[in-house]
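Can anyone check this?
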Amino acid sequence: MRSPEAPMGRSEPPARRSERPEYRAPESPARRPEPPARHPEPPVRRPEPSTHQVLQPSTRRPAQPGPAEFPRPTHDEATPSRQRRAEPARRRTILDRARGMAKVRRTPAPVNTPTVRRAPAPVSMRSPRRNGPARVAAALLLVPALIGTVALPAYAFLPGGQLPGVQTKFSLSVAGAQGLSVSEQAGGAAVSADSFSVTTKAEIDAAAEEAAAAEEAAWEAELASRGDGAYAQVTQQAEGDDYPWWYETPDDYGGGLSPLRYYYRECVDFVAWRLNRDAGVTSAPWKWDWGNLASGSAWVWADAWQAKGWPTSSEPVVGAVAWFTYNHVAYVQAVNGDGTVTIEEYNWNSDHSYHVRTIPVGDALYLYPPV
């Protein structure tokens, strides 16, 4: 919208308060005059290398061209109104070109990141190895020689395993040959040679069997020598626990002595009870007890039988006492025909209870019941 005071012809825009005063550079005889403002694209003055061109990398951003570095209008340019209208476009054009040139030549600013210092790589002072023709030829000659030295023997045999002029097989006669002279006296001496015999396994087994038979014969002879052979004949009775004091407390728990003067529920007390039962005595006065039979330790019962002259044997009979070397006695209830015997006992395995077992005949020594 035009101002009412302005003439109808060509008018100038009103000046702003913030507009800077027009600047005219002093005339310089050496400076080339600028082209008139009517040209739309005035020539652009190339910025100085020291200001716009970054020759070496730097962390600082290159300086932007300032307003003092742009060319200033001269006194022979167009009118002030036309100059003011063309000045903003010209400045923008020059500034855009300068920025484009600076953008091409500008080095991107480094990013502020933490710097990690790394140890420099060791520099090798050796010159790079070159595989020349001489090196290749030496390798081709050396490698087969090494393989032949390691893999092959130091000498080669001829067909038949013989070397020329050398005997490779061992000869005892040749190795033991010595150049000796033997006198006539030594030649007539008698020559003796030691002899030895080898014992076979069959001979060893036969000797062991003979030793076992001799030991058994000696044991039977010893048993036969004990006593006069007289013993009580006992009729076999039904097996079962008929021990009258089965409920009494044993000695391990503070129990006392039975009427037979052995501790309750011990193996010796049960066998003494059976010997009295077979003799027809089931109450006092007792025929057999601690005083006239044997002591309270089952270990000495075999010696007590021998001391009294009562017979013992390896052949069991009904009513005999089966004596074991591990301090135990039992009552022979039956003699079986298959080489076993049935025994009744108390306190086997120290449990103070009644047991019935079948054992081989040879597991015990049998003390025959006294008369």
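Reply from J.R.: I decoded it. The first strand starts at residue 312 and ends at 313.
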